[in-house]
Amino acid sequence: MDVNGTTTARRVTRQIAVGSVAVGGDAPISVQSMTITKTADVEGTLQQIYALAAAGCDIVRCTCNEAAAAEGLAQIVPRSPVPIIADIHHQYRMALAAMEAGVQGLRLNPGNIRKPDQIKAVATEAGDRGVPIRIGVNGGSLDQALYTKYGGVTPEAMVASAMQELAYFDEVGFDQVKISVKASSVPLMVEAYRQLSEATDHPLHLGVTEAGPPPAGLLKATAGIATLLLEGIGDTIRYSLTADPVEEARAGRQLLEALGLRERKNVDLIACPSCGRAEIDVIDVAQRAMEAFGERKLPLQVAVMGCVVNGPGEAREADLGIAAGNKRGHLFVKGRNIAVVPEDEMVEALVEWAEFINEHGIEAAIAKADTTKAEREAARDRSLLLADQGDDVNHAAEKIVEIRKRASTEV
Ligand code: SF4
């Protein structure tokens, strides 16, 4: 997206189907995550899958590392609300077992299943069953021969690993493939995906592997994934965080919504950073509002602003907002004051009005409100605050005088 809000054209890729979810082509960019339970624990894994789906996850991956996991998948897949992908490392037989269990996709790591006849056996059976495969190259487990040839984990080596695997698939006529070239280094993964997108038109699965715990992990993953999405590269994404996987799903969904690549599903909460003028603890109110909105399906932008002096104006684009002043909360809709509530009822009032707007629309909310009274009350509290705090509550003018004084005395 450029500064004018124009979206960079999305790179054209082929489309594959992961069960009911289309990936690539003009399909919406999908969000993936991975369960952290033992896959043999059917009920525990399903609980996590339900939570992931509720948080906006479109596709869930489960490890299939032993026969008990494959047996678990046979029970999980029919009860899952989203397609299930089996994650396979080292043992190609687990890929065959997972397909027998009915999974809608496989992920193979070319770094640890290397025998061409085994790779081809899996691809042939996947072709017969209509199961797509992700070639999941990982910088940390790159094939040793490629590591040596390219002098380390380089973008070229990672792309070569993916293309080598793709060639085996081509040999058996299998093309239901998506590819990832993840690394824990953001610049490395960005460059690898750029090169990969030039080399193939298969859909790409984006991720920064082993990004770590939030907030640093969130930042790393966002830096890598968002950079590529804004260049039009990427068809499905996964945040790899050392955290509850629900956080991964939530982050993926929120990133896509923030970039305008998926429709908003839940509240987009914006809040001022607070300053000397704040009449409330903005951090606490914003946190409580986030918790109150939770996973409610309210696709609105809601603002929490620390003061009525600047809040309603600064957040005039929000669908709904609240600004504090004189121990009261001033509610506003698209910058229009609509109601005043006691300070300790601010969060409840936000939720109530958000539900009303979601059901009846912005115009109905403004029509229902006594805007004249609300505007008068807001003007009153604004003047009281200005009289009390002045219009330079952060003492910028004093600081400027001091800065100029120092500058004029410096040699
Ligand atoms: S001026 Fe008011 S709305 Fe703006 S940052 Fe300060 S408290 Fe928040």
Give a quick set of tags describing it.
alpha/beta; elongated; binds iron/sulfur cluster; 15 helices; 411 residues; eight-stranded parallel beta sheet
Kindly describe this structure.
It is a single chain. The protein is α/β, with parallel strands linked by helices and 411 residues long. The chain has 15 helices and 15 strands. It is 46% helix and 17% strand. The protein has an eight-stranded parallel beta sheet. β6 (105-108), α4 (116-129) and β7 form a beta-alpha-beta unit. α12 crosses α13 (362-368). Residues 1-6 have low confidence and may be disordered.
Main sheet characteristics: 8 strands, parallel
Task: Determine the number of helices (DSSP H or I, runs of at least 4 residues).
Answer: 15
Structural class: alpha/beta
Spatial sequence of strands, sheet with the most strands: 8-7-6-5-4-3-10-9
Bound molecules: iron/sulfur cluster
Instruction: Give the C-alpha Rg.
Output: 26 Å
The H-and-E topology, N to C, reads as EEEHEHEHEHEHHEHEHEHEHEHEEEHHHH
Shape: elongated
Helix content: 40-55%
Distance between the termini: 46 Å
Number of strands: 15
Report the sheet-strand fraction: 15-25%
Q: Low-confidence parts, pLDDT < 50 over ≥5 residues?
A: 1-6
On the 0-100 scale, what is the average pLDDT?
93
